[in-house]
Inverse folding.
């Protein structure tokens, strides 16, 4: 597994993995047969790469990735690519404003732009970073620019206007000077375990910050009377939060129902 740390027995002619050491952080996804499997282990930072166009920018997807980062124990940042292409400046400004208000670093530019590449390198700062996002947004191009190691790249699908999957497996690639990058090979979404609303809110630090001003200490920010989030939080971002809470509530009910 990309990022795993192992204990190796090298006493013979070939090294043998004897033990996988405990994982500090994890990112997981649903695999074949509906089973949850780990995609990346022991990473420090989840960097979501999103294009402003081709494929289209999906604000809710960014929020879902942020919660996955919190659930897995990682820090979170956003890189917006293809800024040089015609796009909706208003939408981009709204997305950037929401993410920065939440305390998440945001970098914008082109995957081929040397300035942006160095900004991302500074963001990683010698750590193990995971690149995630839809195919076609420039993850592999940016990985190559950072590491000097070429990864397969492809065109955006004309029929779906979304990226084709061009890499096939998560791969850890060291960065010159320290740190490393894992390209998650077109993983569209990470699995979120059944979570209490407080855990989801941890992925929305702006909502956590306004919670003390809610009328009731137990406010879940789901339309409760006197909820400060109704006034202080961007409606689109609040909608993302509520959609994740509703999905988590359903997952918890399903899990508890099957256990009874």
């Amino acid at each position: 597994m990309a990022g795993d740390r192992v204990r190796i027995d090298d006493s013979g002619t070939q090294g043998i993995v004897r033990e996988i050491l405990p994982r500090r952080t994890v990112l997981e996804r649903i695999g074949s047969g509906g089973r949850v499997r780990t995609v990346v282990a022991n990473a420090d930072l989840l960097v979501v790469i999103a294009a402003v166009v081709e494929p289209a920018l999906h604000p809710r997807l960014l929020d879902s990735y942020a919660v996955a980062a919190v659930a897995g124990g990682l820090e979170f940042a956003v890189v917006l690519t293809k800024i040089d292409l015609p796009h909706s400046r208003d939408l981009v400004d709204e997305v950037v404003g929401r993410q920065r208000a939440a305390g998440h670093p945001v970098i914008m530019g082109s995957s081929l732009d040397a300035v942006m590449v160095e900004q991302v390198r500074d963001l990683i700062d010698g750590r193990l970073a995971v690149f995630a996002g839809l195919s076609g947004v420039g993850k592999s191009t940016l990985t190559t620019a950072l590491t000097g190691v070429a990864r397969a790249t492809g065109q955006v699908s004309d029929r779906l206007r979304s990226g084709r999957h061009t890499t096939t497996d998560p791969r850890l690639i060291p960065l010159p000077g320290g740190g490393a990058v894992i390209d998650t090979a077109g993983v569209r979404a990470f699995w979120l375990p059944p979570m209490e609303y407080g855990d989801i809110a941890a992925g929305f630090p702006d909502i956590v910050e306004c919670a003390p001003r809610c009328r009731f200490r137990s406010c879940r920010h789901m339309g409760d009377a006197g909820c400060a989030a109704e006034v202080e939080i961007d409606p689109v971002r609040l909608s993302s939060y509520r959609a994740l809470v509703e999905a988590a509530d359903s997952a918890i009910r399903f899990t508890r129902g099957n256990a009874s």
Q: What stands out?
A: The CA atoms of residues 170 and 184 lie 4 Å apart. The mean pLDDT is 82.
